[in-house]
Amino acid sequence: xxxxxxxxxxxxxxxxxxxxxxxxxxxxxxxxxxxxxxxxxxxxxxxxxxxxxxxxxxxxxxxxxxxxxxxxxxxxxxxxxxxxxxxxxxxxxxxxxxxxxxxxxxxxxxxxxxxxxxxxxxxxxxxxxxxxxxxxxxxxxxxxxxxxxxxxxxxxxxxxxxxxxxxxxxxxxxxxxxxxxxxxxxxxxxxxxxxxxxxxxxxxxxxxxxxxxxxxxxxxxxxxxxxxxxxxxxxxxxxxxxxxxxxxxxxxxxxxxxxxxxxxxxxxxxxxxxxxxxxx
Length: 280
Fold this sequence. Notes:
Blueprint: H1 2-13, E1 18-19, H2 21-26, E2 33-37, E3 40-48, H3 51-65, H4 78-87, E4 99-102, H5 103-116, H6 122-133, E5 137-140, E6 143-146, E7 151-156, H7 173-191, H8 193-206, H9 209-221, H10 229-242, H11 251-254, H12 258-269
Parallel strand pairs: 1-2, 3-7
Antiparallel strand pairs: 2-3, 4-7, 5-6
């Protein structure tokens, strides 16, 4: 039954536009835009018009699923979410520049919120409707369920920094492309078994213990949950190989020389599956 429901979901999803990376970047939006990734329609891509709209829809989900210092067994209320964001030195716009989740994780969030009686905001409710309409999520009684193995990733349009805050809310073209490529690599990690297996082989067999710890420490500094090994491996591949904006990631992020970073990337590429969806 699960295989059949997954096939039906992807057949329905085919009605959505399928766009490649360049087509996604060429879009301009003042509202949410939804598409499937060309070459891998199991990845749903949402472009938000700005970081504020994205944060309102996604930040509470991020807190539940991957942010350090947040509980994994309950959905935060508004006050607790605001305090978590403040504690990490962010505002609702800078908490995340992009997001990525499995359909099953999103289903867990909505089911947990409903069972807790935790009210959701307008953007979170719109996101659920969007995902149901796109056949990513469905309903089974009171529960929200995943429609097979699918991933949802998000990024935003460009925007200017808010000079009244100490945070950097700017999204220029370079940062926007880097965020999109980073998030799409997560979508492929979730839905492309050969790529996910390669990432784990790299992590376990081609890195030294010191290199693994450098990557983990960097991610913990960024407030990812260091105890979630799958999250760490997923983020490591995305930062190392799919974050071309060196303001977000560079050799200094790991405390190593450029030649060492180049060597890490060379080792990752050995035997890596081709990612045609990313133009690679």
